[in-house]
């Protein structure tokens, strides 16, 4: 069974600082990996995905993530935080046989301080 | 396109009551799914459907029923509501038969359910 661990349920950064949200997965074979963002009282929106092409994946709103098989990680980064980035972020994994069935991490709430 | 729509947005039920959460999509997506979101637990898959007439269980199916009579609609039924079913429910859909985008899921805005 797959699982996803997001380290840090709450992360605070100053506006303009680096954003780093951590995600580690557990899977017997390299899975598909996703980051979703949820703004208050809204549904989830796909930020980016890894599906076995380039290991460095660029997404929307300036976010990117790097798949590291040796570390079983898929951390999300953004060089410079903006106030509008404040939201909850979810890492998700699916196996290649049932790529549409997602297993989510518990989420990381990002706060951006002025 | 309206995308994925869910009704109602909010609902309060008493223990033992039944109700149906509605989900519809106008993107001709074959795959649809229901998740529940609880604090500190992320989203967990309840049921999913790969096409009209085909449904299957996810991680937490107990207490819920689904059916898929049309491509557009995927209702979720609570048979006898319990306080443990207090949660936010999200419907999602996807359909891109080939290429990288077939892994993208589109989520509705959610239904916040409270069972007292």
Describe the structure.
The complex is a heterodimer of chains A (114) and B (116). By secondary structure, chain A is mainly beta. Chain A contains no helices and 11 strands. In chain A, strands 2, 4, 5, 9, 10 and 11 form a 6-stranded mixed β-sheet that branches. A 5-stranded antiparallel β-sheet of chain A has the order 1-3-8-7-6, with no helix packed on it. The termini of chain A are far apart. The mean pLDDT of chain A is 90. Chain B starts with a strand and ends with a strand. The radius of gyration of chain B is 14 Å and the shape is globular. The mean pLDDT of chain B is 91. With 116 residues, chain B is an all-beta fold. Chains A and B meet through strand 4, strand 5, strand 9 and strand 10 of A and strand 4, strand 5 and strand 9 of B.
Q: Mean of the pLDDT scores of chain A?
A: 90
Q: Which secondary-structure class do the elements of chain A indicate?
A: mainly beta
Termini distance of chain A? 41 Å
Largest sheet of chain B: 7 strands, mixed
Oligomer: heterodimer
Number of strands of chain B: 11
What attributes characterize this protein structure?
heterodimer; A: mainly beta; five-stranded antiparallel sheet; B: 116 residues; mainly beta; four-stranded antiparallel sheet; globular
């Amino acid at each position: 069974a797959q699982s996803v661990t997001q380290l840090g349920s709450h992360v605070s950064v100053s506006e303009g600082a680096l954003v780093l949200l951590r995600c580690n997965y557990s899977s017997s074979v390299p899975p598909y990996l996703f980051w979703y963002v949820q703004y208050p009282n809204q549904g989830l929106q796909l930020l980016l995905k890894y599906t076995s092409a380039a290991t460095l994946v660029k997404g929307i709103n300036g976010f990117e993530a790097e798949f590291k098989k040796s570390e079983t990680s898929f951390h999300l980064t953004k060089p410079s935080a903006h106030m509008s980035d404040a939201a909850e972020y979810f890492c998700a994994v699916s196996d290649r046989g049932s790529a549409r069935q997602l297993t989510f991490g518990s989420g990381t709430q990002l706060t951006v301080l002025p | 396109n309206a995308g994925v729509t869910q009704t109602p947005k909010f609902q309060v039920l008493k223990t033992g009551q039944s109700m149906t959460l509605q989900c519809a999509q106008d993107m001709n997506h074959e795959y649809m799914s229901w998740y529940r979101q609880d604090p500190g637990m992320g989203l967990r898959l309840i049921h999913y459907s790969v096409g009209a007439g085909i449904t299957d269980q996810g991680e937490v199916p107990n207490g819920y029923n689904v059916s898929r009579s049309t491509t557009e609609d995927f209702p979720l039924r609570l048979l006898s509501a319990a306080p443990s079913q207090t949660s936010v429910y999200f419907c999602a859909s996807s359909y891109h038969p080939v290429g990288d985008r077939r892994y993208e899921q589109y989520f509705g805005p959610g239904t916040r359910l409270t069972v007292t």
